[in-house]
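Repro:
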Amino acid sequence: MKQTRWLMGMPITVEIVDASADAGAFDAVYAYFAYVDQTFSPFKETSEVSRVNRGELALADACADMQIILELAEQTRQETNGYFDVWHNGTFNPSGIVKGWAIDEAASRLYEQGFQNFYVDAGGDVQVYGHNAQGQAWRVGICNPFDLGQIVKTVTLVDRGIATSGSYMRGTHIYDPRGGEALDEIVSISVIGPDVLEADRFATAAFAMGRDGIYFIESLPGFEAYMIDRSGRATMTTHFHEYVSGRLNTPEFAGQAGRITR
């Protein structure tokens, strides 16, 4: 069973291969994403993030999930030498970590229900478990950021996550938190990690590092990345090629925005 619904300003796709999948499992996943959107969206007036920014809610009084996000954000800030920060010009916006966390939580809830073969994809950031309907590893297509209809890389994943940070979909929305400058050296960077939360938080920080971001990911055990700059030049970490498969691949160029392929 497979469904796609539009939440959090993006398409969210869930596919469950296990025969025990039913409509209730999907409804629960999407209800969870709706909760995340209502709590963390900086665009909803009633969200806790918006209330914090208006001075109506102290962070210390926010919900338990907000406290988890704050802890993860501070951990990431320290691990990235300040290149990840949920504050920009005095505004609180944890979106750079919430999406990956929400995908990981949603996938974990499905796993805890006994499902073993499925994926959750929110706006191109993907968590996979087990295998697809053919009993093979999930294949995630990576699109050309200059032509999103073209898949130019395909990676195979089992029990891992992939996340992309870039400017090609939403324009400039990631800044160097240390100086506040807009970033335009690279167009996107995709990170494969042990789960989508880890991949997402480090992808955001790596993008903020500009061209140095790929070297940061290279230094992290268990992570691989593919970066493309504004001139179309691609750079990959040492072992990224081990995930690459299929004929839709060219060694000199790849794009972003992952999606499951057949």
